[in-house]
Structure formats: C-alpha cells, structure tokens
Amino acid sequence: MVNHQSFQLSAEELPHQTQEYLETLFAVGNGQIGARAGHPLKVNQFYPGNPGVFVNGFFDSEPIQYGEWAYGYAKNHQTICKLPNLRGVVLRIGQEKSSDSEWQTKRTVMNIDLSTGVLTETYHITTPSNKQFDLHMSSFASMTRRELYACRYTIKNCDFPDAVELMHTLDQSFYTIKTDDPRVANKNHQLEKESISDYHIWTAPQSNKRIALRLDLKPHQLVEGASLEAIFQLALLDDNQTAPFQNQCVAYSLLLEEQRNSYRDFWEKSDILISGNEQLQKGIRFNLFHLNQGAGRDGKTNFAAKGLTGEGYEGHYFWDTEMYLLPFFVYTHPEVAKQLLTYRGSILPQAKARAQELGQSGALFAWRTIDGNETSAYYPAGTAQLHINADIVYGFQLYERVTGDQSLMEGIGKEVVFETAKFWLDYGTYAHKHGQDCFGIHGVTGPDEYSALVNNNFYTNKMVQNNLYYASELAERYGMYTEESSKWLAAADAMYFGFDEERKITQQDDCFLDQAVWPFEETPADNYPLLLHYHPMIIYKYQVCKQADTVLAEMLFTGDFSLEQLARDYDYYEKVTTHDSSLSRSIFSVMASRIGDTEKAYSYFMDTALMDLTDLQKNVVDGIHAANMGGSWLSLIYGFAGLYYDQGLRMTNHLPKEIEQLSFTLTYLGESVKVTLDKGNIACVLQTDSLLSVEEMDGGIRIRQK
Q1: From 311, 449, 554, 574, active-site residue
Q2: Does some domain include residue 383?
Q3: Among 128, 230, 238, 499, which residue's beta carbon has the most beta carbons within 10 A?
Q4: Are residues 88 and 119 in the same domain?
Q5: Of the residues 239, 266, 293, which one is the last residue of a structural domain?
Q6: What is the span of the domain harbouring residue 601?
Q7: Which of 396, 534, 536 is CA-nearest to residue 471?
Q8: Which of 620, 561, 617, 537 is nearest to 584 (CA)?
Q9: What is the spatial distance between Cα 71 and Cα 69, in angstroms, rounded to a whole number?
Q10: What CATH number does the domain containing 106 carry?
Q11: Residue 136 — pLDDT band, cuts 50, 70, 90?
C-alpha cells in the first residue's frame, strides 16, 4: 500500500535549516527552468540567501586566462547564467515598503509535494510598525508547458485593515556567493536587459545568448484571503528572434491540473516501493523527483551536474548523464533518454572539430561543456578523460538494446559511434607486451581523477573495446565502413588489460599498483576531499582513488569476470578509495550486491539515497548531486535486483535484510514489466499478450523476447 506521506518533504524534518541549503533542496524545475526556493521578499541586505532562476542552455562565456598557455588548451569558460529571484516580490502597506527596511519574517511552512512538484510555503511577516500577516505561496515549474513557471501569493491572518500592495520589479540584484571551492562558479555575469512591448530580453554579453521573459503582473492590492497568480514565461531566443510568446494567458488552475497529471504518469512508470524503511522510501522518491526536474527534453540541452538547482560546476554537462542518469530514463522514460542522446548527436560537429584540433581523426566529445565546446581549463582532469567518447557510445548502445528503437541509430546515433571509433583507432597505440602485440590507450585519465595521464587505464580500455565492437557491429548492419570495420575489430580483439599475477588483481593502469599507498591513517578527516587540501602532484604519486574506476568497469561488464575476481578487485580497491566524488558510493553499492556482501551494499545505498537530504558531501548549497541521485536508482535496480543486460534483462535477488520488499517497474522493448523482490524471491508480471517471456536461470530470471 502506498504511503502518500512519503511523497511529502517538509523543511522541519531536515537536519539543516540554513537558507542556501533549503533553496537547493526545495528548488522546482522542469528540465528547462529551475527556480531555487529563495526568500519571497526581494533579496537585499535585509534578506540574505543565494536565490535565482536558471534556464537550461542559457550561459555566458569568457576567455580562459592561462598563466602559461599550450596548444589545444580549451579557449573559453562557459557558465550558466543565474537570473534574479523571479518569485520574490516587494510588499507595501501604506508608506512601509519591504525593500526599504527590514521586515521580520518567520517561515512556518515549507513543503514540497513530490507527487505533483508543487512547493508550498507560509511566512509570518511583521513590519517595522508591528503590522502582522501571513504570506502564503504555492509555486511550480510546468512539466507540460516548459516555458512556464507559476506562483500564487495569498495574504492571510492580517491584524490590520489596510490592503497589502504586491509588486514585482524585474530589476532585482543578481546574487552570487563568493567561494574558494574550484567546483563552484565564482562569477557574477551581469546581463544586459532590454524592454520590448510586454516582455523583457536579457542578453549574456559574451556568448550573445538571449532569453525572453514575460510577466503579466501589475502592482496589486491584496486583502485578507485574496490571492494573486503570477505566470512567468521564459524562453531562449534563436538568432534574430524577437517575438517568442503567443499572446495567451494560461490559468493557474489549468496548469496545476496538467502538472498533477504529468506527475501521475511519471510516478506510474518510475516509482519504487521500499518496505521496511520509510526514511529510505522518501529518500529515493526525492532523488527520482529531482531526476525528473533536471533532464533537458528538447534535444538541444542535457542534464547539468547540479541539475538546474545551483551554480556548482557552472551548469556543465559531463559523462554523468550517460553513466549515471541515462539508465534511469532508458528503463522508465525512454522518450527522455532519446532527447538526452539527441543532444549529444547535435554537438557532433564540435566533437569532430575538437579531434581535428588535436590532430586526430573522428570525433572527441568535450569533457565538460554546455554548447559542445570544451571548457575544462585543467586538461589532466578534463580533456584527458577521453573515456567520455566511449561513455556516450555506451549510452546509445544501452538505449537501442533496452528500447528496441533503431531510429536513433539509423540517424545521428551511428555517426557518433563511427566517428568515435575513428578517433580510437588513431589515438590508440599498438605495443608489444607480454609476448604479443596489444592495442592500448595511453596518456589518459580514467574516472579516478586522482590518477592522471596514465597508460592503459582499465576502465578506458574496456569502454573503448566496447565502442570498437559496437562500431563494427553497426558497420556490418548498415553496410558501411567495411575496411575500417576490420581494423576496429582487430584493435578491440587486441585490447590490453593489465593484471597483477602475484596478487591476482586487475590493474587500474600500468603503474597504479606500483605506487605507495596514500597515508590514510595520517590524514585528518577535515582534509577530505583531498583535492581541496593537496597539490595534484602529491595526490598523483600515490595509490589512492577519488572514486570507482576499475570497479565501475566491472559493474558495466560483470558477465566478463568470475565472481572470485570481482570480489578480489572490490576488496582491494575499496581500501584505497576516498569516495571524494559523489559518484562513487553507488557503484560500490552495486558491486557489493553482486559479490554477495549485502551489508556493505545497504550501507553504501543509505549514503546514496540520503546524500543530499543529510548534506553528506557538505556542499548541497551549490546544488543537488544529480549523478548520485541516478546512482541511488542503480544501487536498487542494478544492485539489489542485480539487473544487467545479457541477451535480455537478467536479474538476481540481492535484497539486504533491512528491506522487506522492493517493487518497481521497467520498460523493456516498449512493454511495462512489474518486478517485486522479497526474501529470496523475484516475481515478474508482464503485460497481457506480452511478446516477452520470463525464464529462470542461475538463481535469477531473464526477460527476453519470445
């Protein structure tokens, strides 16, 4: 039975009450617009915080200033632009005005309904002359009309007869918190504003990106019990576009009804029921809710590392999308997954230009970007993470396998696969190792950013091998690149994978296991994450992992390894991993499940499910950890349910003792598949007249076409 209370998240139940922390967690969005839950009164010296609104794809740029420049370095920063606190208002009662003096405010209600995406708040306000009243707010970003953000303001419990005048001026200050954290944008891009007819245009001065805003809200007199509805329209403008809006007004009530229906559909396909722990139940729903809010859906935008909830990582898109977020959408909302991958296809020209700039064939996708151009100023932990190419290809491959939809591959998808394969064949190196000619990828950085510019990173080589095999498969399917295909296949077959015969451990790279282990016992707890306290050269010379690397490769290709090998590698690499990246714990949770250590699997899952609610990484103020949220889904479905692709969907019950029952829905080959796990059992319900079959095998089940 569904507990609807676990769809309600109140500020009162959270461990922290700082304004910036709550602004992130209670942000509302729809993949195009994201609004932090800033204070409702105009932000100035009286009402601090870090409020603002983000629009996916709206950014400014500026040249990167290098002390010493070298050929091929990224040329420009890109930083998502934060618009002012659109939900904030100025109140006036007689001669008293909230922007002129400090009005005392006390938040009495702050609640997000995860089942609808609607945020409700109540503030008890006292003016300097001791007039008191409540300001009630209800707000959401429309999931059906993605250019719209809606607010409803209501005045209640007035102890005076005067009307409250509510005004919204679009000249509010842009607010940016200064920080020394290199992971956070520390720039305040002042936008140029132009008023045209009934709307305004803001222009980012360096990128020339433009956004239009319309708000039909005049100063309004409110009395006891009266409400005012404000509908904001926000739209990115194409070149030379000047009139983006249709002259129609959408009622708040209609938008709210559409919102409820949209979320009803989302939860029908995505909800996960966890019996035995209400805290985890709410935690996983909170994570899935933010996944729904953050995904671009227009084929031109993607999923920023912090979603649209903060300035962390400057609004950039990383490999996080394909490796941590995409699986959730592929298995529950494939239409969204298709749009995220379509974005990657749209930036293929930039990837080809980048490869050419580096003197290589094919395409090299940017490590961090918004518009497809590389923006990472520190290439050892940026451009050198060439595995981004193979990560993207893995995403296309997963989409095709799980959905059965070949239209994406018939279009831009196959070109992405072919162009990345060309790159690998050119960039890779044949060398004679251990008595045979091997193909390897040298001078790269794998997922572990504490080991840079290494040869034969295991994860990279494994992903490249998969990339080359898939390219060869598609070349045969479409009758293309016959000559190149044979070379791709040969390189994949000859791929080198290091192995320490003495310890029987898979080598993360050619030198990792030869380095001294990081002095963990001598490192103060306050010195984590290491990247904020030690020079990269010091970190790089030690055996220490920022996050899952070899273990991640083994999660993706579990069927290629014996259980004994997986367990040995897991035990070894867990001891040298700091989990300084929020992407790490979910992978260790999944692999702990697969090697049978359900106690560790559950412990790591607790961290992933509640990471932002408990502020585990201590930086929620900068935005949510979107990849970890996707990782919490992986911990449940890839871990506890043991899901991986093996000529169909293969699942094994690894449910920990703390969870009585786990139920979820997958979409496979266009059909809905309902799965329930309890102690030692897996039950699977297919659609009536399903074209799928369920077969028992090796202590689990496999779902495949009949």
Answers
A1: 449
A2: no
A3: 230
A4: yes
A5: 266
A6: 285-312+584-706
A7: 396
A8: 617
A9: 7
A10: 2.70.98.40
A11: very high
